[in-house]
Design a protein that fits this description.
This protein is mainly α and about 425 residues long. It has 19 helices and two strands.
């Protein structure tokens, strides 16, 4: 009977579940192999009426953890089932305070991008200690909100709760420290403004700022100036930029691999099965009409030579790209060599285009030849213009990058050293 109840809970058949619970209400507390109750399944699926029925049979089921430590309220919050969350909180408010692997339900909401449920739980509990709870890494939910750049959640936490804006995690980082490690985009400036207005500071460079007792202004202390300069020169601030650059290069390499593989496949297919097919009868005395020979070689010998040359160029170019990408050579991780591969890909696509034009011209009937030739001429001119524009543009870009690299090599830029601001007691 219990497996049947799980299936009905998953499908949301409330009436059948009510009939079963009316006869055997104890089935609501029968766990499966994963220690899940029917309420776990109904909550995760978002079946509100079914959740009500299961709660009426056994409200304690709301507190039961599964094998991962999640109770039904946790699963509903993770899945974004806001209506179910309200029902479960109303039935057993203490279910929201259960800890899962040293994380509260608020941490789960942050990690699974459920800001609306997070706001509801905070407004419902209204407990400062609960809101300021920390996970296994000593991050409170404000730390996580800054990590995920959730500006609305950050503003809500700063304005509607008493969460500690300068709480440190296990690495000694405040939310402001975490923000400083990210990319300086629009969200960065929005979050920076909100945190600054709330009095947030960076703990790791907190010794650089001293409070002037006379005018209450923050200044850079002389003792912390050397640490500040070292921090600015540290490669830590280049980590995010380097990561984004590596991700961009990886995506480009993957794209090149896919396109090159596709071109190689098409070129191989066209080479082994040319337009018009091959001769099937090998009894003829004509040397050019043996079985397996291309019919195009006899009917259009000049075009066949162009077809072979362009198809071979496209095939070899795409194979070269594939070979270089799978070779794992270290110099291929630089943008310069990636752009060289792009030029090779342009050559391959141009060769494939010419192969297509030749194939269509061979397969098209004669009445269409004049119109086809005029259309092809226009297309070829547009294509040549586009390719020329791309090649010239990227060559200019490569030359500019090479010149900047050469200039940095010959004339290294000196990093400016910040001077300490020394004030007297009058604030001058």
């Amino acid at each position: 009977m219990a497996p049947c109840l799980y299936t009905l809970s998953m499908l949301g058949h409330t009436d059948f579940v009510k009939e079963i619970l009316a006869r055997k209400p104890q089935l609501a507390m029968e766990p499966d192999s994963q220690r899940r109750l029917p309420l776990h399944i109904a909550s995760a699926k978002g079946h509100v009426e079914l959740v009500r029925a299961l709660l009426s049979a056994s409200p304690e089921a709301c507190l039961a953890p599964d094998c991962d430590g999640n109770n039904p309220l946790h699963l509903a919050a993770i899945k974004g089932r806001s209506d179910v969350v309200k029902e479960l909180v109303q039935a057993r408010p203490d279910a929201a305070r259960a800890i899962v692997q040293q994380e509260t339900i608020l941490h789960l909401c942050m990690n699974h991008n459920q800001p609306e449920i997070l706001k509801f739980l905070i407004e419902t509990t209204g407990d400062h200690e609960f809101v300021s709870s920390k996970d296994s890494q000593s991050n409170n939910i404000l730390h996580l909100a800054v990590v995920y750049r959730q500006t609305e959640t950050i503003n809500f936490l700063l304005l509607s709760t008493t969460i500690q804006v300068n709480a440190t995690n296990i690495s000694g980082e405040t939310p402001m420290d975490i923000l400083a490690q990210g990319r300086k985009d629009l969200k960065y400036h929005q979050i920076l403004q909100s945190l600054t207005q709330a009095g947030a500071v960076e703990a790791k460079i907190g010794n650089l700022f001293r409070q002037d007792p006379q005018n209450s202004r923050n200044e850079i202390g002389v003792d912390g100036l050397d640490n500040y300069n070292k921090r600015q020169a540290s490669p830590f601030y280049l980590k995010e930029t380097s990561k984004n650059s590596d991700d961009w290069l990886d995506k480009k390499r993957n794209t090149l691999m896919v396109v090159a593989s596709l071109i190689a496949t098409m070129a191989f297919q066209a080479g082994t099965n040319p337009p018009g097919g091959v001769w099937q009868d090998g009894t003829t005395t004509d040397e050019n009409r043996r079985a397996g020979y291309a019919i195009m070689a006899s009917s259009h010998p000049n075009l066949y030579h162009v077809f072979l040359v362009c198809n071979t160029v496209g095939f070899v170019s795409s194979l070269s790209i594939i070979l270089l990408l799978i070779s794992g050579l270290p110099f291929l991780k630089h943008r310069f060599f990636l752009w060289i591969l792009m030029v090779i890909l342009w050559i391959a696509t141009t060769s494939l285009s010419i192969t297509y034009v030749v194939s269509i011209s061979v397969l098209s009937p004669n009445p269409m030849s004049e119109t086809f030739k005029n259309v092809v001429k226009c297309i070829v001119l547009v294509w040549i213009g586009l390719m020329t524009l791309l090649v010239v543009g990227h060559n200019i870009r490569l030359i500019a990058i090479a010149m900047r690299g050469l200039r940095r090599l010959l004339l290294p830029r000196k990093r400016p050293i910040l001077r300490p601001i020394i004030r007297n007691h009058d604030g001058m």
